[in-house]
Amino acid sequence: MSKPYFLIHWLTAALVFFNFGTGQYLPDLDFYSPWYHTLPRWHILSGLTMVLLTCVRLWRRPHQTFKHTAQSSLRWLAQLTHRCLYGLLGVLLTTGYLMATANGDGIVLYQDWKVPALTTLSAEASTQIGTLHGTVSLVLMACVSLHVLGAFKHYFFDKKELTHVHS
């Protein structure tokens, strides 16, 4: 695994955990909380950063092979887990974007720089997308746990360097 790819992997992981934590906390914020305006903005900007990092990852390494996993069942599980991680992340980033732009306004990045809204959603559609977003985040964390267990297996039981797991 190259150093830039390694850095992108861990930056994405940190952003996933940050967004999961903030996402769990956001519904409990009330208007008088000092975090009411700041935390949602950080959550959204972190999500947009993940969009960019995920695009770079998919462009940089479109085909991963798992050389060091001897058993075909474990190799299959590793491939399935990675596909699920990317798929779930894609759903989360898409639903997050739709929720952030549900009222038809774009996402302001910096002064006049905006990510435009593609559509306006009804309150009911926005609520349904929010429910999907929250549910998928929990499933993503389950897949992340499986991914971490696989990394622990490689490192502690197989005594393999994690930087060489992917070809």
The CATH class label is Mainly Alpha
Largest sheet: 2 strands, antiparallel
For the CA atoms, what is the radius of gyration? 18 Å
Straight-line distance between termini: 7 Å
Give the low-pLDDT segments. Answer: none
Residue-averaged pLDDT, rounded?
Answer: 87
CATH architecture: Up-down Bundle
Looking at the structure, what is the overall shape?
A: elongated
- Given the helix and strand composition, which structural class is it? mainly alpha
Query: What percentage of amino acids are in beta strands?
Result: under 5%
Give the strand order, joined by hyphens, for the main sheet: 1-2
Reading the helices and strands in chain order gives HHHEEH
Helix content: 55-70%
Q: Output the CATH topology.
A: Fumarate Reductase Cytochrome B subunit
| Number of domain modules | 1
Q: What's the total helix number?
A: 4
Number of strands: 2
Can you characterise this structure?
- By secondary structure, this protein is mainly α.
- It has one domain (3-164): Fumarate Reductase Cytochrome B subunit.
- The protein is 66% helix and 4% strand.
- Strands 1-2 form a two-stranded antiparallel ribbon.
- A hairpin with a 2-residue loop joins strand 1 (107-110) and strand 2.
- It is elongated.
- 10% of the residues are buried.
- The mean pLDDT is 87.
Characteristic key phrases:
167 residues, mainly alpha, Fumarate Reductase Cytochrome B subunit, two-stranded antiparallel ribbon, single chain, 4 helices
Task: Set down the secondary structure blueprint.
Elements: H1 3-25, H2 38-60, H3 72-100, E1 107-110, E2 113-115, H4 123-157
Antiparallel strand pairs: 1-2
Helix pairs in contact: 1-2, 2-3, 3-4
